[in-house]
Design a protein that fits this description.
By secondary structure, this protein is of the alpha+beta class. It has three helices and five strands; from the N terminus they run ββαααβββ. β4 and β5 form a beta hairpin.
Length: about 120
Amino acid sequence: MFILFWAGAERQIIIKGKAEKLAENLSDGYFESRPRGSQLGALVSKQSSIIKDREVLEAKLADLEKEYEGKEILRPNFWGGFIIKPVEIEFWQGRPNRLHDRIHYKMDENYNWIKSRLAP
């Protein structure tokens, strides 16, 4: 489940579905489409790992810029994408007196989206 909530706008979207890792060739294609700086940044950063400070990142980036000057940057093995295949989506809009709008879409067995309104 993936939830996006905007408190100030009183809006929310809930997406239910299955997340799947992208095939390597699709991850490769997306990585190749990224700006060179983003490609190098992917090599610099083991995402969400603890680092001493920002200077560690900046120094690694400077080293990699020299190492890869004039060379192709290949996608690192740890880098890849995911796709979410939704089966239900709900759009929620806050309203006075708790009479919120809730519009719900659910995919049926024939891959058609069925729209309904839910009570708040």
